[in-house]
């Protein structure tokens, strides 16, 4: 081996400089990532520190007392459960079918593109505009009044894109060969979807549904004028009742109740964040388990 | 039973010209489902049209009978509940929304792009997975919780650090909105970076480029449109955010001189005032008119983002 060849494999000063630049940028971006995450972690820590003491079974399962200044969150928690359940009953079937259309039937053309654009817009229109829509359409035009039904319909329209996008991805991850094999057996399109495509993507769809639960539970603006109220002593009995909701309850407790015990709004915020993050973690865990299980 | 007709043997047994005529029960079920699925498929279009129609329907009365376009857009006086001469000028509200969104983007764009580059190009294995999960969880925190954080945590901090009388201001809302939009923009930007085929990276690395050179010279130019689209979607999010800006801006109609001024946003105005209005009244219709404006602007932003991401990708 000549000396010339050996020099070729030695790091030149240029290589060294490149490596230094590289590690500098690596550190820079690493720090940026940390600075994005760290403040939020500190904020969450503060919430837990200040509100953790108030959380108890009693806080979760009693009604507010003394003009909402003390007591628990039961009516708000139950109200959120009502709103989310009704919203899901409405949006999941439509969303899943819409995703089936987009994944299994629609061609790659301008019409599909318009549908996609509509989905992006449905997710991107400000939540307060959804609230105006809910008020104008469901409360006034369809005469549902301010009720769980009107609020849930508004939430359903708003969060449907979550289900559509998750379901479409899940359906598209089923290999085309599965479908082709089934068609070759003489099955119709629907038979193929029901017996082959859906069973192979059901867990992915569930992931999307859980994600939607979390989104729906946290929304405030869309329900403010359509069905959620600041305070009601009654628990909802049907979809035509008004209700309290956890998210709105936090807003009210933080801004509209003078003399409230300081830790109560922290407690409400913790319950809301806990609910939302629990749902999201479940969805993520589900997805990871699914990825490990996939056979193709 | 549904499947019995689908086996090839059954069809053949019928014989003759009808052998390929599959108009049996399953055929009708298939067609019915196809129609149902199509209806659900276009529901997104129906809903978007519905939003526009109903918001327009409630607000159009104001546009036709009460609105003075010049006064509406160019005066900063918003006194809708003045009994004698209510004034509807949204200049200050627009300034509030613009200042808060602008500051939020100043905070969020560099950090989310940096984080996205780190997650997509530098981190690997467990670190990447953990960071991705964390970013996703951060994106899930509801906006009312962010508003609460602005109100009870940021507010005293700003008063203490900057020695100002009120901590509910452009700075507070901008930081809150930035922290809120950053995780969403990070995931979109990371998707855009992931969409660049690995063979681009491999080709550059084979030429002896370092990871940073690959990122800077190859991946970023290739992902440019996706990143721009992500930033635009983030702008749309910030612009339309309601609860957080309602709680963190201080909610004072004001054209801001500094980041420590309280302002009021378009979205927050609707949220705060709609409850007090009379259905069909002038004030009520004026708020719906703001809603029309919000809808049109976010629609345009989303459309532009979509055109940038898709249109150029095809060309």
Short description:
The complex is a heterodimer of chains A (296) and B (315). Chain A is mainly alpha-helical and 296 residues long.
Give me the secondary-structure category of chain A.
mainly alpha
Largest interface: A-B, 92 and 97 residues
| CATH topology annotation of the largest domain in chain B | MetI-like fold
What's the total count of β strands of chain A?
2
Unreliable stretches of chain B (pLDDT < 50, length at least 5) are 1-17
Describe this structure as you would to a colleague.
The complex is a heterodimer of chains A (296) and B (315). Chain A has 296 residues and is mainly α. Chain A folds into 2 domains: 12-54; 57-293, MetI-like fold, CATH 1.10.3720. Helix content of chain A is 75%, strand content 1%. In chain A, β1 and β2 (70-71) form a beta hairpin. The longest helix of chain A is centred in the N-terminal third of the chain and has 39 residues, at 13-51. In chain A, 51% of the residues are buried. Chain B is mostly helical. Chain B folds into 2 domains: 4-67; 87-314, Orthogonal Bundle (MetI-like fold), CATH 1.10.3720.10. Chain B has 13 helices and 2 strands, in the order ααααββααααααααα. In chain B, β1 (78-79) and β2 form a beta hairpin. In chain B, α5 (91-122) packs parallel to α8, α10 (211-240) runs antiparallel to α13 and α12 (266-273) packs antiparallel against α13 (282-314). The longest helix of chain B is centred in the last third of the chain and has 33 residues, at 282-314. Chain B is flat. The chains are: A mainly alpha (296), B mainly alpha (315).
